[in-house]
Design brief:
It is built from five helices and no strands. It is an all-alpha fold. It has one domain. The longest helix is centred in the first third of the chain and has 37 residues.
Length: 167
């Protein structure tokens, strides 16, 4: 079981680190947009939209990595005072009863939305915009899948902690 947990978490780690590079690209493109607009009095809608796309991708595709790093927002007023066994129960039950079902719901609920976008090869409604809206919408499915995998790893790790006696 530890090999599976490690493989899932390693996958989240690698995808998260790859996605993190999009923030640098976003900064560079934003700088370029500003220079083009204020120095050269020109600009392209597609370039501006690319910043929005990158921003969405960082948040959607970086969610699993954030969860793995335990850097997500959570209310742990009670959790931090619990002993390791109770924390493991909260992690396990929270994963199985809340996180995993929500990920499945998001995936199922957004499936038709994404498939419809793909069937149209949906593009930007703006003249000169990016013709890739269908790819951006696909990130919703990817996000739910990535978070589901990391949630599974998190739940399995909690289950493994329950099997090991604590003081």
């Amino acid at each position: 079981m530890n090999n599976l947990i490690d493989a899932l978490e390693n996958f989240s780690e690698k995808t998260g680190r790859a996605i993190a590079w999009l923030t640098l690209l976003m900064v560079v493109i934003t700088f370029l947009v500003v220079v083009l607009r204020y120095v050269f009095d020109t600009g392209w809608i597609a370039l501006q939209e690319s910043v929005t796309y990158l921003h969405a991708m960082v948040f959607l595709l970086g969610a699993a990595y954030t969860m793995k790093q335990e850097a997500h927002v959570r209310v742990d007023i009670f959790y931090r005072k619990m002993n390791p066994t109770r924390q493991a129960w909260v992690d396990l039950l929270g994963g199985l009863l809340l996180l995993l079902p929500v990920c499945l719901f998001i995936f199922i609920a957004s499936w038709e939305y994404v498939v419809s976008s793909w069937s149209l090869l949906e593009g930007s409604p703006e003249a000169g915009g990016l013709p890739l809206v269908f790819l951006l919408k696909s990130c919703i499915l990817l996000m739910s899948g990535l978070v589901l995998l990391q949630g599974l790893a998190h739940s399995l790790r909690a289950f493994a902690r329950l099997k090991v006696p604590h003081d």
